[in-house]
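Lab channel / #folding
Pinned by the channel admin:
"Please post every new chain as: sequence first, then the structure tokens as a reply. Keep commentary short and put observations after the output so the thread stays searchable."

First post following the new format, from NK:
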Amino acid sequence: MPRTVNASTSGNALPDVNQLDVNQLDGSDVSAADRPQADEATQTPPHRGTGRVRHDEKITVYISTEELLALEHARLALRAEHGLAVDRGRIVREAVAAALGDLVERGSDSELMKRLRGA
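Reply from TO:
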């Protein structure tokens, strides 16, 4: 279940970070039942994307125009050439799962490590 921080917005769309109570941000308002257990936090991530389900978490990633066009081209190619009608988010989740699975399996020899090192 997603948590929200209640703060006065004074008419602004976003709360003023200077007005936020630090106690609201440190997790003290989360019950013990809602906190991940130690074994949950250390589990190996899944090697497959979560597919077409409702997701409670969101991140923002900035990519170049070329990267966005390549992603959209891949989406269209999956549909035209393979009959897979998937959205860009699904492609990204599968790519992240594949990269993390490769990192777990191959460690420093993984494709992700090679790319991050600039090799």
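NK: The CA atoms of residues 48 and 97 lie 5 Å apart.
TO: also worth noting, The chain has two domains: 1-43, 48-117.
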